[in-house]
Design goal:
By secondary structure, the protein is an alpha+beta fold. The chain has eleven helices and ten strands. The chain has two domains: 211 residues, Aminohydrolase, N-terminal nucleophile (Ntn) domain (Glutamine Phosphoribosylpyrophosphate, subunit 1, domain 1); 90 residues, Alpha Horseshoe (Serine Threonine Protein Phosphatase 5, Tetratricopeptide repeat), CATH 1.25.40. Strand 3 and strand 4 form a beta hairpin.
Amino acid sequence: MRTAVSYLVGLLLTGAWLGVAQEPTEPTVATFSIVAFDPKTGDVGVAVQSRFFSVGPVVPWVEAGVGAVATQAFANVTYGPRGLELLRLGLTPEQVAKLLTEADPQHDRRQLGIVDTKGNVHTYTGARCTPWAGGRVGKDTEGRAYAVQGNILAGEAVVLAMERAFLDSSGELADRMVAALAAGQEAGGDSRGQQSAALVVMRPRGGYGQMNDRYLDLRVEDHPAPIRELARLLGIRHAMRLLGEAARAAQEQKSAAAYESLQKALAAAPEYPDVHYALARYLARSGRQAEALEWLAKAIRGNSNLKSSARRDQAFAALRENPGFQALLKD
């Protein structure tokens, strides 16, 4: 077995670094990121922010049941797929980082974080990464493993704040990772500013229709406040799941459960028109017409196309002759 693994590792690394020994010509992916794993859900992922356009296709590499890699600084994007393959072969994150960087002539310019789904974690910062650069690793009391790392940061306080936020926050792994990014930014973040962010989380059979593992794949390509926008998108994703739960509860005549899910959806995405519309439908069916009209008005202000949906929606049948309802639906 050892011989087979050694042979496969050799194949992975042979020729991997041809053409990479030259001085950098691409912009440096100066950034801060977190890789993490939750043993309770099987969630594994990467969250990242950078003063770099469209960081999502570069830094995060994730595979359910295997692990996650964040490759940054003068990023070697082959670290992502090769790192996951080495984890798949049974190597630890520390062993993977050692193999990848020792075979790379530009290793001193690289930075990466690696976590596997056994709870092992490692962070690496090359000696020539632009300061401040470094990282931290650990586990929380429930076994969630993490590595936080960054380069061209305002200072070490950035990664310390990220670590503390991850440990102190609540919710799913994704919520904790985005909280870590927000805390890092609050502590100074990337010394050059903000531009893009990404969040990738894999969960076994957690994708659409439970037909793949892609639980979350959210990207903010170019935005003045990318972490805040990433958090907004994550809130919408949570809200859509909760709207589904509310619909199923309503079909099963579980009115209280449906309303509870709707309230949670509103908390997750307070400005999302689809949530307002779903609340209006529930309230209309419950005979609370005045409240239904208020939420329907808010929904339409956010998305005027919902007028056509409301016209044919049987949930609003009792409101058809209501002057307020008719006024809302005028073109």
